Amino acid sequence: MRRKKPSLTAAAFILMFAVPCLPEQLSVPSSYTLTLVTRLTEVSMFSGRESNLRIYRRGSKELVELRIDPWPANEKGIHFKYLFDFESHKAYTHDLVNNTCSWMLYVSERAPVAYDPITSIDAQARAEMARAKEHSAGTEEVHGIAATVIETDSPEGAIRTWIAQKENYPVKMAIRNNGGVLTTLMEVTQVDFNPPAASLFVPPVGCSTQAQGEWSDTGMKAHADALVSVQVSASGSNQTALQQPTANADEMIDIMDVTTPSKATCSVLFRVVRADTMEPVPDGLQILLDDRDVSSEYRSGVLRISNAPENFSLRVDSNDGNGWSSDLSRQCYRPETVLLLSVSPDLFETRWYWVKSGKYAAAEE
Hints:
With 365 residues, the chain is mainly beta. The protein has helices at 7-16, 42-47, 123-129; strands at residues 3-4, 31-38, 51-58, 61-68, 78-85, 90-95, 100-106, 134-142, 145-154, 157-164, 170-176, 182-192, 210-216, 219-221, 227-229, 241-243, 252-254, 267-274, 285-289, 292-293, 298-299, 302-305, 311-318, 323-329, 336-343, 350-355. It has 3 helices and 26 strands. The strands form 4 sheets. It has a 13-stranded mixed β-sheet, with helices on one face. Strands 17-26-25-18-22-21 form a 6-stranded mixed β-sheet, with no helix packed on it. The relative contact order is 0.15.
C-alpha cells in the first residue's frame, strides 16, 4: 500500500497487521454485541476524533453503528450505520446525519479489521501476526474482562494489546511511541454474546444506489470516474457524490494503481485542488518533498519537481492541522506530468491521481 495518511494513521495500519499471534481457538463467536471506542476507523484517522462503535453480529450479517460527537469543524457530528451481508457480498452505508444511503460490493469473508476485533482476526490474520516480535506483559482486567497483556515491537513504537482470556480477541490496543507516551487506539467497553434481534439486519428502505468500487476487510477502493460515491472520512457526508475530475480511467490513474516508476524521465507538476470545483488551493499549505520544506516553491497552486526522481515522498499539511502524505513512484506521460491531490472542501477526504491526458494534464486549466 503506497498511500499514507495523517501520523496516527500510519501507526494504526501497522497495528492492524501487528496484533500479537493469538492462541488457536476452536471457533469464533457467531453472535454478539460489542461497544467500543476506537481511533482506527478512517473517519477517526482523518478527523482526529474518537469513534464510538456499537457492533451487532448475527451469523453472516453484521451491523456497525458509528458515532462521532460534534466538534468545531463539524457541528453536526457523524452518525453512520454500516450493514455487512457476507453471503450476498454487499455493504450498505447509511448516513443518518445527511439522510443518504448506498451500497457497495464487499469482497472479503471477514469483517473490516478497523471495526470488529472479534471476527476480523481469522486464521490468515493469525498467520500474518505470527511473524511479530512479542513478549508477555502480565494480566489485567479491561472493563471486567480478564485479559492477557502482550507487547509487540513495531517501527512506530511498542504495541500493547489486551487479549480476552476466554474468547481470545483483542479488547484493548495501545501504542507507546519512542518518547514513552502511551496512546489508546481501541478499547472494548461492553460485550454480550447473546444473539441480537434479527430485525437489526434489514437493509435500509430505498437503499438501491450502488457506489462504484469495492470494499474489503482492509478498506475501500474506488475508481477515478466522473462521479464517485465514496465514504468521505470526516466530512459528515459519508455517501456524498464528490465532484471528481471529469475524466475516465484512460485520462487519470489513482496512485495506488501504479507502483513501478517510469523508465522515462520528466518533471512533475504537483497541484492541490478542491474536489468539488477543481480550483487550486493556492495557499495555507506546508509541503515537504522527501522531508524537505518546499512550501516557498509552491506558486499559484503548482509545485514543480524538475527531473523528478524515480521514487519520492510528498507531505501536505494545512493550517488547521490536517495532513496528507504519500510515497510515490514517478509516472511520465509527457515531459511535464501533472500529479493531483484532490481534497474535499473541508480538507478531510483526499485522493491522489497521476494525470495521463485530458484537460487536467496541463499545469493550468
